[in-house]
UniProtKB/TrEMBL annotation:
A matching Pfam family: YCII
Native organism: Polymorphobacter multimanifer
Record-linked SUPFAM superfamilies: Dimeric alpha+beta barrel
Protein name, UniProt field: YCII-related domain-containing protein
UniProt xrefs under PANTHER family: BLL7171 PROTEIN, BLL7171 PROTEIN-RELATED
Superkingdom of the organism of origin: Bacteria
């Protein structure tokens, strides 16, 4: 079964990416991603650039409404995601709990929608 782990970090945690704390920040993420790869559970994933680089689109009456940045003003920001291939939710939760952001931010776990039936 596939699960998406959506990694949410506080702006302070994301700010560590480019400071003197960067080696510890990236080292923790490298070790975590390496552990998932070594266990053979990581299907795919990517980190994301900061929310300030985002563009949000909504449509109303067939017209585009485009906004710079994320639409919601939140305390946590989506920093990246991984698609896991694991037997069940409990296993996905175990991997999510090991994420470096789990203590300061959060990890959202969602089942991946199966492909539509052929036909």
């Amino acid at each position: 079964m596939q699960f998406a782990l959506l990694y949410n970090e506080t702006p302070e945690e994301q700010g560590r990416r480019d400071t003197a704390d960067a080696p510890a920040y990236w080292g923790a993420w490298s070790a975590y991603m390496g552990a998932m790869a070594a266990a053979g559970v990581m299907h795919s994933g990517q980190g994301l650039l900061p929310p300030a680089t985002a563009t949000t689109l909504r449509t109303a009456g067939g017209k585009w409404q485009v906004h710079d940045g994320p639409f919601a003003d939140t305390k946590e920001q989506l920093g990246g995601f991984v698609i896991l291939e694991v037997p069940d939710l409990d296993t996905a939760l175990e991997w999510a709990a090991r994420a470096p952001c789990a203590g300061a931010g959060s990890v959202e776990i969602r089942p991946v929608m199966p492909p539509p039936p052929a036909g």
